[in-house]
C-alpha cells in the first residue's frame, strides 16, 4: 500500500506552484518567529526537522548547532528529537520550533552534531516502543540524511574511515536516485556546493545545501536576526545574505534541470539545513514580486 507521505506528495501542487518540503539535520534556528509555509492552510511545512539528543540521569545533551541560537526559532515543520537506545520524541504538525533550547538540564554537545549519530538513530528509530524507521517520513529522513551529509563534497565515512563523495553515497545507499547537477559557487567565505538529485521512478527532486565547512563561514552563525527575507521579518541576517547570493549566482544554472522535476524537496545539515529552511519558506511564500523570490525561483 502506498505510504501516506507519498500520497501527500502526489496530491501536492505541481512544481510551477512552488510547493517545497524540507528535511534538515542539526540546523541552526533562523528567525525571531517561526517561518511558515504560506502555501498551506495550516502554515506548517511538510517534511522533517531532526536534532540529536541523549538523555542522561540528570541532563540532556543536544546537538550544539540546533541549540546554538538561544533567541531564535526554527520553522513550523514536524520535529524529531533523536534519542539513542530510547524512544525518540516526535512532534507532528507545526513541530516544536522552540526546541531544543538552553534550559536547566540541557546543554549543547559538539559530538552530537556528527552525521553518524543522525543516521544511526534514524536507522533504529522507535516511537512508543515501536520500530518506525521504515515508515515515512522517517524512512525518507534516513535516505536524505546521506545526501545532506554528501553535500560537503567529500567527507570521512565513519564505517570505512575513508573519504566518500556524494556520488558514492548515492550509489551505495540510494539506488533509485541519481545526481543531476552539481553547482559550485565562491561566496568569499567558502566555495559552496549545491546539488540536485532526482528519483528515477517518481521524478521527485532533492536540492541539497552544503553546511559550514570553513572557519570564515562559521562567523555567519554569529550574525543577528536584524533583516528580512522574502517578506519574512527578523530572519537571521547571515543565512539570508548567504542564501541570496547563492540563489542569485547558482539558481540560473539549475533552472533547466528543475523544470524536469515532479516535486522538489530540500535538505541540509547544520548551516545547510538553515539555508534549506529559509529557501523553502521563500519558495512557498507566493510573493512573486519580491526580489528574494525572483532570484530563487525555479
UniProtKB/TrEMBL annotation:
Annotated coiled-coil segments of the chain: none
What InterPro entries does the entry give? AB_hydrolase_fold, Fungal_lipase-type
Superkingdom is Eukaryota
Domain Fungal lipase-type: residue ranges: 207-282
Q: What is this protein's record name?
A: Fungal lipase-type domain-containing protein
Q: Which organism is it from?
A: Durusdinium trenchii
Amino acid at each position: 500500500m502506498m505510504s501516506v507521505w507519498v500520497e501527500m506528495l502526489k496530491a501536492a501542487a505541481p512544481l510551477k506552484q512552488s510547493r517545497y518540503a524540507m528535511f534538515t539535520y542539526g540546523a541552526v534556528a533562523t528567525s525571531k518567529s517561526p517561518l511558515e509555509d504560506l502555501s498551506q492552510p495550516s502554515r506548517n511545512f511538510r517534511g522533517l526537522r531532526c536534532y540529536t539528543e541523549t538523555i542522561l540521569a540528570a541532563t540532556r545533551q543536544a546537538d550544539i548547532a540546533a541549540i546554538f541560537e538561544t533567541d531564535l526559532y526554527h520553522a513550523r515543520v514536524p520535529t524529531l528529537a533523536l534519542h539513542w537506545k530510547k524512544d525518540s520524541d516526535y512532534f507532528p504538525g507545526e513541530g516544536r520550533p522552540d526546541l531544543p533550547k538552553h534550559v536547566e538540564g540541557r546543554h549543547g554537545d559538539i559530538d552530537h552534531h556528527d552525521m553518524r549519530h543522525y543516521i544511526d538513530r534514524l536507522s533504529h528509530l522507535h516511537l512508543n516502543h515501536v520500530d518506525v524507521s521504515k515508515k515515512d517520513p522517517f524512512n525518507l529522513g534516513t535516505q536524505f540524511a546521506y545526501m545532506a551529509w554528501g553535500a560537503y563534497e567529500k567527507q570521512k565515512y565513519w564505517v570505512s574511515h575513508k573519504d566518500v563523495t556524494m556520488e558514492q553515497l548515492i550509489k551505495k545507499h540510494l539506488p533509485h536516485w541519481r545526481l543531476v547537477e552539481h553547482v559550485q559557487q565562491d561566496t568569499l567565505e567558502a566555495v559552496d556546493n549545491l546539488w540536485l538529485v532526482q528519483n528515477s521512478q517518481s521524478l521527485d527532486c532533492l536540492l541539497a545545501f552544503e553546511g559550514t565547512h570553513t572557519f570564515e563561514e562559521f562567523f555567519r552563525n554569529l550574525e543577528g536576526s536584524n533583516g528580512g527575507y522574502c517578506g519574512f521579518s527578523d530572519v537571521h541576517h547571515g543565512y539570508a545574505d548567504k542564501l541570496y547570493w547563492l540563489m542569485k549566482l547558482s539558481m540560473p544554472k539549475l533552472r533547466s534541470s528543475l523544470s524536469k522535476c515532479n516535486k522538489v524537496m530540500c535538505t541540509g545539515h547544520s548551516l545547510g539545513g538553515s539555508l534549506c529552511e529559509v529557501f523553502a519558506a521563500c519558495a512557498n511564500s507566493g510573493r512573486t514580486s519580491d526580489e528574494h523570490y525572483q532570484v530563487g525561483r525555479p
